[in-house]
Amino acid sequence: MTRPEPLDALEIETGADPSASVIWMHGLGADGRDFVPVVPELDLPESPTIRFVFPHAPLRAVTINMGTILRAWYDMDQAGGELRADESDIRESQAQIELLIERERGRGIAPAAVVLAGFSQGGAMALHTGLRYPARLAGVLALSCSLPLAGTLDAEASPANRDVPIVMAHGVDDPLIPLRRARQSRDWMVERGYRVTWREYPMAHSVCDAEISDIGAWLREVLGPH
Questions:
Q1: Residues designated as active site
Q2: Whose CB among 2, 59, 93, 106 lies 3.0–4.6 Å from 73's, allowing a Cys bridge?
Q3: What end-to-end distance do the CA atoms of the chain give, in Å?
């Protein structure tokens, strides 16, 4: 297999010598800057020191956006009225995200101190990659998204992450990714024994203050001292 191209990324460290990392993927059409302003709002403690990595998705033509070139983790089309994600793009992005985890490993941060996080397409990639990654992660944070390629997960799931803490959060008025679809992904994972914490918020396809507060509390819990 060809080695994936490394992704450019923005980084924010909450202090010197980070001992944990959060790799946070943005949504369709945004870039790594999208969630940078959230970091100071998470009310994180001085310890552990955390490195936030905000990668930029590759530029690609997106079919549902009339072929416009956007930053996207994968192409999507709506042939036959059903939204479909491009499997080859998802697997390419998975390999690039895994490369970011390995880079953190090379900087002294074990996978057990790494959280994969994301919003919309980025959240889908956090779920897809985290549940397949061969080493135990600290957690998976999946915002306003559903699980892609669910039909392949039974065969590809990593035993190391069968009990990884997962948070799925969704807006009850989301017009882009219906609440029903996200709940179906939650139920599918719960039926297979995954530890999914589910949260709903009175919002559309976005984030809100209450959600950010809950994310901060969860990060404090799953990262703890390392």
A1: 120, 174, 205
A2: 93
A3: 34
Q: Is 82 inside a domain boundary?
A: no
Taking only the tens place, the pLDDT of each residue in 111-138 is 999 999 999 999 999 999 999 999 999 9
Report the predicted TM-score, pTM, of the whole model to 2 decimal places. 0.96
Q: What residues have CB less than 8 Å from 219, skipping those under 6 apart?
A: 22, 42, 44, 50, 115, 139
* Block residue for tokens 């079919």: 63
> Residue 16: left (phi > 0), alpha (psi -120 to 50), or beta?
beta
| Residues with Cβ within 8 Å of residue 71, at least 6 apart in sequence | 26, 28, 29, 30, 31, 56, 57, 58, 59
Give the DSSP per-residue string, 91-111: HHHHHHHHHHHHHHHHTT--G
Classified as helix, coil or strand, 154 is helix
Question: In which domain, by residue range, is 219 found?
Answer: 9-55+89-223
**Token pair belonging to 53:** 């990595």
Torsion of CA 54, 55, 61, 65, to 10 degrees: -10
Quick check: helix, strand or coil at residue 117? strand
Indicate which CATH number applies to the domain containing 158. 3.40.50.1820
